[in-house]
UniProtKB/TrEMBL annotation:
Domain (Pop1 N-terminal): residue spans on this chain: 4-97
Name under which the protein is recorded: POP1 protein
Origin organism lineage: Eukaryota, Metazoa, Chordata, Craniata, Vertebrata
UniProt GO cellular component terms: nucleolar ribonuclease P complex; ribonuclease MRP complex
Gene Ontology biological process terms, A to Z: tRNA 5'-leader removal
Organism: Balaeniceps rex (Shoebill)
Pfam families xref list: POP1_N
């Protein structure tokens, strides 16, 4: 009788879970991927969604304004401490190839009359980031494409260089189309095939197998093995998942790669920004084989 009473108490305790626990999805990763089918989330989305009014723009879900009634906290961080902004929704285009060939073709879409160019010594060394306005090939001062920022990877002794161009998602397709035209990149190098997303119907079938009372439910497939959690979707809101993301030219040897959402970008503002970076980033020890 005492044993039956204990089992009965356990059953009653399991029903007294809070509403939030009862409604919790059994696989949060699969649920989050399902909610990102139309608008991609940034890595900091969960943090922002709890504190900001979210808007859907350019294929992303972005934090627009804080839920607080004043902006004093942000202003205080900018003036006295450190304010971090997530700019990962900016699109990153990577150019790889010989330095002289890159500079030769890039000179066609910019002009020294507007200021710095890709050939500026301080930027070419990779020490500083540059910014300029791009135009359609040989069309300056007409047909402006838009502003961009860029940074060169420091030299490693080879004649091949890497250049990262950061562009607003609204201008990405025009920029990418112009870069492929001047470098004659037409052949896709790699095509990304997204992994299948677990649907609600599939999840219901996987949850049919329930273990004994008192143990957590575990998702199993038809063979009785544990189901591997669905991985996060790779890509961005400005590109079709089945579209190629890398192109190479047989004539110039230049390769263009779309690194959007693969390279995260954060902006730190405030007098303590450098201190935050030095405390956060630790130099790795150099190991030689």
């Amino acid at each position: 009788k005492q044993a039956e009473k204990a089992v009965h108490q356990k059953k009653e305790q399991s029903k007294t879970k809070c509403r939030k626990a009862r409604r919790r999805h059994i696989n949060l990763v699969a649920e989050f991927n399902r909610r990102q089918r139309k608008n991609i989330w940034l890595e900091t989305h969960i943090w922002h969604a709890k504190r900001f009014h979210m808007v859907k723009k350019w294929g992303y879900c972005l934090g627009d304004s804080p839920t607080e009634k004043s902006y004093r906290a942000c202003y205080r961080a900018m003036t006295k401490h450190c304010l971090l902004q997530d700019l990962s929704y900016y699109c990153c285009l990577e150019l790889t190839g010989r330095e002289n060939e890159l500079l030769k073709q890039l000179a066609r879409i910019c002009s020294i009359d507007t200021g710095l160019t890709f050939e500026e010594a301080c930027c070419l060394s990779g020490r500083f980031e540059g910014s300029l306005n791009l135009y359609r090939a040989d069309r300056y001062p007409e047909d402006m494409l838009g502003p961009i920022t860029f940074i060169w990877k420091p030299r490693d002794g080879s004649e091949n260089r890497q250049l990262w161009i950061w562009v607003h998602p609204a201008l990405k397709q025009d920029m990418l189309r112009e870069l492929k035209a001047i470098f004659q990149c037409s052949e896709p190098e790699e095509i990304y095939i997204p992994e299948p997303i677990t649907t609600s119907v599939q999840e219901e079938k996987q949850m049919d197998v329930v273990l004994s009372i008192g143990k957590k439910r575990k998702k199993e497939d038809k063979e009785g093995e544990k189901v591997v959690p669905v991985k996060k979707i790779i890509g961005d809101g400005t590109r079709d998942p089945f579209q190629s993301y890398s192109w190479i030219s047989q004539t110039t040897g230049i390769m263009i790669s779309d690194r959007t959402m693969e390279i995260l970008r954060y902006r730190l503002i405030g007098p303590l920004s450098h201190s935050v970076l030095t405390e956060t980033l630790k130099a790795a020890s150099l190991q030689t084989v």
